[in-house]
Amino acid sequence: MNAGLDFRVERWTLASRSAVAGVVAIALALIAGPFVLGPGAMDRLTILFVYVILAAMWNALAGYAGLVSVGQQVFLGLGAYFTIRLADWGLNPFVSMVAAAAIVGIIAVPLSFPMLRLKNGEFAIGMWVLAELAHLLVNLDQLVKGETGTSLISLNAFDAPLRRATIYWLALAAMVALLGALFVLLRSRVGAAIQAIRDNEEAAASVGVRVLTTKRMIFVFAAFGAAMAGALWLATALTFQPKAYFSVNWTAYMIFMVLVGGIGTFEGAILGAVLFFLIETWFGAAGVWYLIGLGATALLFALVLPKGIWGAIESRTGLRLLPVGYRLDIRSLLTKKNGTT
Amino acid sequence: MDAQGPILVAAGLHKRFGALVVLDGVDLAIAAGEAIGIVGPNGAGKTTLLSVLSGAQQPNGGSISFKGGDVTALSAPVRCRLGLARTHQIPRPFSCMTVFENVYVAASQGGGFSRDESYSRVTDSLALCGMLDIANRPAEALGLLDRKRLELARALATGPSLLLLDEIGGGLTDAEASELVETIRELRRRGIGIVWIEHIVHVLLQVAERLICMNAGKIIADGEPASVMANREVVEAYLGGSAP
């Protein structure tokens, strides 16, 4: 009956094409970092890349899939631990980092079976329990020496400038690859299904979405990303103290970045990570007051701007720089209608 | 039944919630393209029957076959992909997504269509349900009628052979309901079978060629609408107590 209907589904706009081009240009420019930046600036940027990864991964899980976890430090900690473990067995430390993230991704598959049976608050707290459990298990390894911890000694075999540059490039590559993969995933049909599950799980199942399989995909992806961030953090910090890596503070930071930036928006998580990084750079030395300030900011945002900074910008201006949605072009449709009647 | 046999056969369906028996031995055979209305007092087990047929709930006993295969153990998404779709009595939109995206999920997942095929399925479903002009509106901004239409558009986009409708006309005005009837008649013309639960019987009878009345978890009458409505047991179930 409407076989002749003329329509267009818009997925890119001029603004979003420019934004992606801009992001690619920034990423390419960042490659030159080690040639122009001092060691201090390079270390700080590496930390920023790790924050962006953490925020994007938590946002993927909570903002898009509706899986709010307060235990993502389990994957961060395991990523660091397996890096230490593999390096101790003689694997190149840089290869160990990527391999450790892969191992954590594989471990996340069986973990997802019990965890994804849990709903909402149960899942959130269940993940925290899982993190505490992993923390205790890691302490059983003699290599770790309990809470005293250990170091990624094999990195010392590389001279400092080369080591610093390699970690920087690795962090940059990981961030770009993870953001790119997430963007492609969210723009695919799986991305739409993930958001449908977030909004109404039962309805999603009734229109053909394989709920558990789809959730598992994003759960494992987020685990892999957090583990990569953990391995990178270890490479910059060199020391591994289980308490520091399996700390719930990590998830608190992720929540802060995503809530302030804008939960459920691709741009928001990146913006939140940059803001968090700047706040830490400027006020991090203030100790307890810094933490109080962070908490107060998060609270303020939850009350005043529940969709975060980017969410507010998006709903006011309709601007979408990195869009994952669909827009039916009505103008071409109406023109056609008028033309035929 | 026609030569190729029924599209769906349910045999001896039982469903309990604790001590409460909601389905008490339901047998049902549906021919391809048939339009069936289901009536019955509140608590008769109508919605539970749809949920068990669609796979949202597992029966405690009995079996269901669809298109000749046993689907009793299959999940709701798998049954949907086979061509068995449903709508919900209380609409369940994907609130943070647009109308278009809501229906796109159904076409790309339940229908399993390619991207371009999904796009045209979505626009076709939206056109049929009169929602093209609000395709880019967020689902959370919709009123009741549009939420009901969205339920229908979404189920339709999965490309069903059999569509289970749960009080799609409930809460609507007569004018709105008759608009919906037109849409459902169009679905019938396309060969889609309909099983429709509805309290507004005169609306239902504009589409249904066969009427089923349920009471207390059992089918108490099944057949040509006029004879079912005249059935003594049906009258008793509706009026409560015995007819004069």
Total strands of chain A:
4
CATH-assigned homologous superfamily of chain B: P-loop containing nucleotide triphosphate hydrolases
Tell me the structural class of chain A: mainly alpha
CATH class of chain A: Mainly Alpha
> How many structurally independent domains of chain B?
1
CATH class of chain B: Alpha Beta
- Corresponding CATH architecture of chain B: 3-Layer(aba) Sandwich
- Tell me the CATH topology of chain A: ABC transporter involved in vitamin B12 uptake, BtuC
Strand order of the largest sheet of chain A: 1-4
Corresponding CATH architecture of chain A: Orthogonal Bundle
Helical residue percent band of chain A = over 70%
Count helical runs of chain A: 16
GO molecular function, one term (chain A): branched-chain amino acid transmembrane transporter activity
Keywords (chain A): Cell membrane, Membrane, Transmembrane, Transmembrane helix
Transmembrane segments (chain A): 20-38, 45-70, 90-111, 167-186, 218-240, 252-279, 288-313
Protein name (chain A): Branched-chain amino acid ABC transporter permease
Give a written overview of the molecule.
The complex is a heterodimer of chains A (341) and B (244). With 341 residues, chain A is mostly helical. Chain A has a single domain (31-277), classed as Orthogonal Bundle (ABC transporter involved in vitamin B12 uptake, BtuC), CATH 1.10.3470. Chain A contains 16 helices and four strands. Chain A has helices at residues 14-31, 33-36, 39-64, 73-88, 93-115, 120-139, 160-187, 189-199, 201-206, 211-237, 242-245, 249-261, 266-283, 288-304, 308-317, 330-340; strands at residues 9-10, 150-151, 239-240, 327-328. Chain A has a two-stranded antiparallel ribbon with strand order 1-4. Helices cover 37% and strands 24% of the residues of chain B. Chains A and B meet through helix 8, helix 9 and strand 4 of A and helix 2, helix 3, helix 4 and helix 5 of B.
